[in-house]
Amino acid sequence: MAAPVTDRVITADEGQWLVMEERSAVGAARRQAQSLAHSAGFSDERVAGVGLAVTELGTNLVKHAQRGLLLMRRVRVDDEVTIEVVAVDRGPGMADLDAALRDGHSTAGTLGVGLGTVERQADRLRAVSEPGVGTVLAATFHGDRQAPPGRSVAGLVRALGSEPTCGDQFAARQEGDRVTLMLCDGSGHGPLAADAAYAAVRAFNDGPTDPPEVVVRRVHTALSGSRGGAVSIADLHYDQGVVRFCGVGNVAGSVSTESTKRMMVSVPGIVGYHLPKVRTFDYELPPDGVVVLHTDGISAKWDLSGRRGLLSRDALLIAATLLRDAAGHRDDAGVLVGRRPAP
């Protein structure tokens, strides 16, 4: 199998979203987090630190949040593995995040207590909070206590109901200022849809960084005999100020800034079953432009303009906010965000 021709291949485990409503859920989350850290080769000390941070996050969600969810997963950038923990809620929010990160700080009903502990244990902690809307926190843990850079690419998926796996999956790669995104929505939901989506991920990762329409055709071949699915490829060239987009089916793509949101064109069809004539369309990509791909489990009516500078933040915070605010409950949901890489 040929190695990908790329600087950085970015993939992530699907993970599991845990509902944090009862105190017993905190212990389950801690054990799951420690198991993930152990499987990633972390030392016993780091495993304990990850467990402590997750305990604090989970406890805060149970005590103060409304509809709090916690995700834990492994993220791989080439051969490097980190543990990523994402906490989202529709709680009261925090007006002063810096104060909330100070040990012991809390205002009535907020999530402040314990976040100082999370910040000390994590190698990177980022958060966005809107009073009256809710909070998103993302903590990254490296086995060697190395602070990873801010993320220019982040994807999140959530399976429908009690399905064991999600039919929406993503992959990405970064080559300098160039970022390439792929999101697949396997037809239907459940294991067969997930099989198709994971086949798309493998086809994307195992080949070179070809033009988007070439990658779509390669994925089409890989999905032959499966349920097939909808696939979109976005090739972001910030040095040229252009994003090249090729989409088949209902995986939507857009370019957003603080003042604009421009949808990109997908053509009808089913990759792996009925592939129409595919074309790549070019769109302007401003230096501050954020590219978002999402499946039809996410409402297309989302709007992040004016949300306390959210579009200037880490890609994972953007993805988690969209999943919280715009995901429905009748299908799998997947979102993939790409932004300009940090210098």
What does this molecule look like?
With 343 residues, the chain is α+β, with helices and mostly antiparallel strands. The chain contains seven helices and 17 strands. It has two domains: 11-142, Heat Shock Protein 90 (2-Layer Sandwich); 153-338, Phosphatase 2c, domain 1, CATH 3.60.40.10. Strands 1, 2, 3, 4, 5, 6, 8, 9, 10, 11, 14 and 15 form a twelve-stranded mixed β-sheet that branches. Mean pLDDT is 89; it is low at 1-6 and 107-111.
List the helices and strands and how they pair.
Layout: E1 8-12, E2 16-19, H1 23-39, H2 44-64, E3 69-77, E4 80-89, H3 97-100, H4 115-121, E5 124-130, E6 134-142, E7 153-158, E8 168-175, E9 178-186, H5 191-206, H6 212-222, E10 229-237, E11 242-248, E12 252-256, E13 261-263, E14 266-267, E15 281-284, E16 290-294, H7 315-326, E17 333-338
Parallel strand pairs: 11-14
Antiparallel strand pairs: 1-3, 1-8, 2-3, 3-4, 4-6, 5-6, 7-17, 8-9, 9-10, 10-11, 11-15, 12-13, 12-16, 16-17
Domain PPM-type phosphatase: 152-340
Keywords: ATP-binding, Nucleotide-binding
Organism: Actinokineospora guangxiensis
- The total of beta strands comes to 17
Gyration radius (Cα, Å) is 19 Å
The CATH topology of the largest domain, please? Phosphatase 2c, domain 1
Number of helices: 7
The appropriate CATH architecture of the largest domain is 4-Layer Sandwich
Identify the CATH class of the largest domain: Alpha Beta
Per DSSP, what share of the residues sits in E-state strands of 2 or more residues?
25-35%
Helix content: 25-40%
How is the main sheet built?
A: 12 strands, mixed
Number of domains: 2
Task: Give average pLDDT, whole number.
Answer: 89
Shape: globular
Low-confidence stretches: 1-6, 107-111
- Assign the CATH superfamily of the largest domain: PPM-type phosphatase domain
